[in-house]
């Protein structure tokens, strides 16, 4: 079957699904006699060309099954590819002496591969690990739109039918109703899940102690108030010199201020130093640059 796989790679659904579907729709459907003849050639003679024809003639059936699983939100092309693997497995194991058509035998292999793919990819956290849970998953999924949240009688009926405990049915229903969220996703205006917070947003930030933040905010507010009060106690010239030297984005030089007040640069430095001393006395040395 390895060679058979290579022979149908040229019409893989991975590239362009629409073109793929159009291509396989042109492949003739085998009659019962043609199918039996090809199956016997493969079964008794290991004829790989017969295997190729059997696979090609049933590709459209794989697409039909894949479309029934479109509600899981997975790419249809991926489901088709997985189903094709199941089809080839079925062709390899098909026994024409059993008296059934290949499509009846292959449907179980095709669905099995698709089920495995869905369970691996539909949720980040695995929703079904045991055989009973997998059966339960697909039974619940197929009935979900009609049932919504199940009542106690419906849960009991499904649990009895599948041979599992009622709590397992409830757990599976809860998993299916959950929403997958990226660990560090950010909300966007056009995102339907924007009202949900990503898991990373629930992590504790040890650097963000509310008490410490409040204390720091109060200290900053108090310090700013004391600084403004101390600045108001200075004369206009001293206040302007400090503002120009320390509070402006573009700080003035001593010579620029000296030219402004028609004094020497040394005099500006002395005025600045005296103003600093007054501020230190009013608000403390930790707030005043040295």
TrEMBL record:
Q: Where is the RNA polymerase sigma-70 domain?
A: 78-91, 253-279
- The gene behind this protein is rpoH
Q: Name one GO molecular function term.
A: DNA binding
Origin organism is Neptunomonas marina
Membership in a protein family: Belongs to the sigma-70 factor family. RpoH subfamily.
Localization, UniProt: Cytoplasm
SUPFAM superfamilies per UniProt: Sigma2 domain of RNA polymerase sigma factors, Sigma3 and sigma4 domains of RNA polymerase sigma factors
Pfam families, alphabetized: Sigma70_r1_2, Sigma70_r2, Sigma70_r4
Motif Interaction with polymerase core subunit RpoC, residue range(s) on this chain: 78-81
Keywords attached to this Swiss-Prot or TrEMBL record, sorted alphabetically, are: Cytoplasm, DNA-binding, Sigma factor, Stress response, Transcription, Transcription regulation
GO terms, biological process: DNA-templated transcription initiation; response to heat
The record's listing under PROSITE patterns reads: SIGMA70_1, SIGMA70_2
- Assembly mode: Interacts with the RNA polymerase core enzyme.
This chain belongs to the protein called RNA polymerase sigma factor RpoH
Record-annotated DNA-binding residue ranges: 254-273
Q: Write out the GO cellular component annotations.
A: cytoplasm
The protein's job, in short, is: Sigma factors are initiation factors that promote the attachment of RNA polymerase to specific initiation sites and are then released. This sigma factor is involved in regulation of expression of heat shock genes.
- Ranges for region Sigma-70 factor domain-2: 54-123
